[in-house]
Amino acid sequence: MSAIDVRLEALLAGAEPRDADEMRRAALIGELRGATLRAPEALRARVAASAPAPRWSLVRRPSRRFVLAAVPAALGIAVAAALVHGLTGSPGEQPVSAIAHAPSVVRAKAPSALKSFAAPAAGSGGGSVGVPSALGTPQSVLAPTVGTPGRLQHTDASLQVRVADVARLSAATSAATRIVTLLGGYAQSVDYRTPQHGDGAAYLELRVPAQNVRTALSRLAALGTLVSQQVSVQDLQHALEVESAQIAQLRRTVVALEQALRNPALPDAQRVLLQIKLAESKRALSQRQNARTGTVTAGTTARISLVIGTAKSAAVPVAHGRGRLGRLLHSALGFLGLEATIALYALIVTGPFAALAALAWFLARLRRRRDAQRLLAA
To answer: Taking phi first (over 0 means left), then psi (-120 to 50 degrees means alpha), and beta for anything else, what does residue 72 get?
Structure first.
C-alpha cells in the first residue's frame, strides 16, 4: 500500500489534514458523506422490472407473541369450563349415611330424594324377612325408598351387620348370597375371615337388579344387628340422553360419508380424506355405544357392599361416598377428558389439511427466497 493510500485511509478515519492537498481531499470526503445519492433512472427501471409481483395472502401469519398468549389462554378456558361443569353437575350423587350409636336403632339424615328410615330392635314388631333360624330371631329393618321412578339411576349401598359368633357369621354369609341370588343378582366377591382367636368377618360385594335393591337392603340388614347403612343414588338419565344423541349424530355422519364415497367422480384426495373421517366416525360410534351400554348396566344393577362381623371383632370401616369436593373434582376431570377427546378428534380430522397448508407455505417461502437471490444476482 502506497503512502497516498495510507493517508487517504487516515483521512477517512477522521485524521487531521497536513497540507493543502489533504485539506482538499478531506473537504471532498465531507461533501460525499453529506450528499444524497440517487440511482439513475435506468437502474431503477431495471430493478422494478425484475422484482417479483407482490403476492396477496388470504390469512396473515400470527405473530409468535400472539401464539404464546393464545395457548395458555385456551388451556385456562378449558380448565375453567371443567370447573364450571363440576360445580353445576357434581350434586348428582347424594350420599346417605347412617351410623348406629345403639344396636337397636339406626338413624339417618337423608336428602329430599331419600326418606329417613329406622331399624327396630331385635324382637320388636314387624314382618319377618325370611332370615334362617340359625341367625336367631328374624329382624325387620326398613330400607329407604331410593331413586325416582322413570329415570335411570345407579344405587350404591353399603351395610355393616354384627352377629354373635363365628357360627352365625358363616350362616349369615351363606344367607346373604342366597338372598341376592333369589332376587336375580349375584355375589361378585366374598372374603370370609375367621382368625384363630375366635373373631371373624365377611366382606361381600353384591350386585342386584335396581328394582330389587330395597328388598335386598331390608333382607341383608336383618341378617344380624345393623351397625351402619349407607345409600347413595346417582342419576344417569342425563348421561344416557347425551350418549344417545351423540350416537344418533354419529350414525347420520357415517351414512352421509358412505353416500359421498359412492360418488365415482370424487377426486382421489377427497376420497382419502373422507375414508379417514369415516373410519374415525365409526370408531367414535363404537366407543359411544359401549359407553351407553355401560351406563345402562350401571343404572339397572345396584351395588351393595356388605360387611358381617362378630360381636368381638373390631369395627370395620365402611366405604363412604364421595364428598362435595370429590364429586366436583371427579366431574371436572371427566369433563377435561371429554375436552381432550374432542381436541384429539379435531386434530385427527384437520391434520391432513394442516399438513397441506404447511407444505404450501414452505414452497411459497422457498420461491420468495429464490426470487430474492435471482434479483440480487441480476
So the answer is: alpha
pLDDT, tens digit (0-9, with 9 covering 90-100), for 108-131? 333 333 333 333 333 333 333 344
Give the CA angle between residues 284, 289, 290 to the nearest 5°.
100
Cell numbers for 294, please give them: 355401560
- What is the spatial distance between Cα 223 and Cα 129, in angstroms, rounded to a whole number? 9
Q: Is 349 helix (H, G, I), strand (E, B) or coil?
A: helix
H/E segment holding residue 72:
helix 64-89
Ramachandran angles phi, psi of 224, nearest 5°: -170, -150
Q: What is the pLDDT of residues 65-111, one digit of tens each?
A: 776 777 777 777 877 777 776 666 544 444 433 333 333 333 333 33
**What are the φ and ψ backbone dihedral angles of 319, each rounded to 5 degrees?**
-60, 130
C-alpha cell at 139: 329382624
Cα distances from 87 to residues 80, 116, 325, 340, in angstroms, run 11, 27, 9, 19
d(CA 162, CA 119): 14
**Average pLDDT for runs of 10 along the chain of length 378:** 75 80 82 72 71 57 69 77 66 39 33 33 35 41 57 88 87 91 91 78 91 90 89 88 92 92 88 90 92 87 90 49 66 76 82 86 85 69
Write out the three cell numbers for 186: 349375584
- Where do the domains of the chain lie? 65-93+322-356, 99-121+130-238+300-320
String of DSSP letters for 219-263: HHHTTSEEEEEEEEEEE-HHHHHHHHHHHHHHHHHHHHHHHHHT-
Whole-number Å distance between alpha carbons of 182 and 153: 22
pTM beyond 0.70: the answer is no
